[in-house]
Structure formats: structure tokens, C-alpha cells
Amino acid sequence: MNIVKIKDKTFRTSISEEEIKKRVKALAQQISHDMEGKNPLLLCVLNGSFIFAADLMREITIPCEISFVKLASYQGTTSTGKVHKVMGINEDLTGRHVIIVEDIVDTGHTMKQMLESLGTRHLASIHICTLFVKPGKLEENLDIEYAAFSIPNDFIVGYGLDYDQQGRNLPEIYTLVED
Asked: Model pTM greater than 0.70?
């Protein structure tokens, strides 16, 4: 078990790179099957999901496209409860099959706001794909069709997820060790 120090916090390995790759491939296969003939648009929520979205897209075997939106709701290790749109969607989504690709869904507030925002764009369908979901923290009723891992309410870093903008480059998932 590896231990890493990021700024003032200590983290331990909780999910291996191999396990992540296996789950991402399984999600891609499921999406490829479900979206056959639909050319879905992967809507990647930056910054945290960029690595997951890239790996997921490379494993999808059907034609698909990708776009990006940037939202912010975290400060340090805690969600502020307020979602700020930093970079929005510019393309026409009318008639598109959109898959929101998120790194982690905890309370669900960010995802609910995204769904409400996209609901006015006349989509053919909308789907949620997340690397992690924290069922014990979820406060919104969401239909999360594609989830790689259900995890406890721990704070995690690695594979795109950060602590104060650090640790995104780690290939594995690390969980905060309480002092």
C-alpha cells in the first residue's frame, strides 16, 4: 500500500490503476452497446474528469464526440455547496444524445444543476457517467446509468481528482488518511 503526501495531507492507495482501467473499459463497452448508431456527445466536466473522459473515449467502439464544460464547487477537501460555471457549452445540442462525464458525484447538486441547464436544449437523450459515486452523501435523486465505482464518503485524489489542484497526475486513487 502506497502512501503519498500532498501539501499538508497524507493519502493511501485505495484503488489500483489496473482496477480503474478494467472498470473504464467495462463502462465503455456498456456505452458502446447502449448508444449503438447514436453518435453520442461526451460532455466532460473539467477539471477532474479529463483523464477519465480521455480513457473512456479511447475505449468506446462507436462513433462519438467530446466537448467540455468547467464547473467549480470545491475548496480544499470540502464542497462549498455552490456551483459556479467557469466555462459553458457553445455548440448546438438539439437532437443530440449527451453523456455527461463526471469524475465524482457526491451530493449530486452539481449534476442536478447541469441537468436543469441542459434540459432547455432539446436533447434527444441525456445520460450520466461518473467514475465515482458516493451513495452515502447523495442528496439529489439522479439516474446515474454509468458508474464505475461506488465509494464511501472519503476524500480521494488521483486519476484526475485533486486536493487543492495537486495529485491529479497520480495513476491510482488515494484516500485521505485522517490524522
From this structure: yes
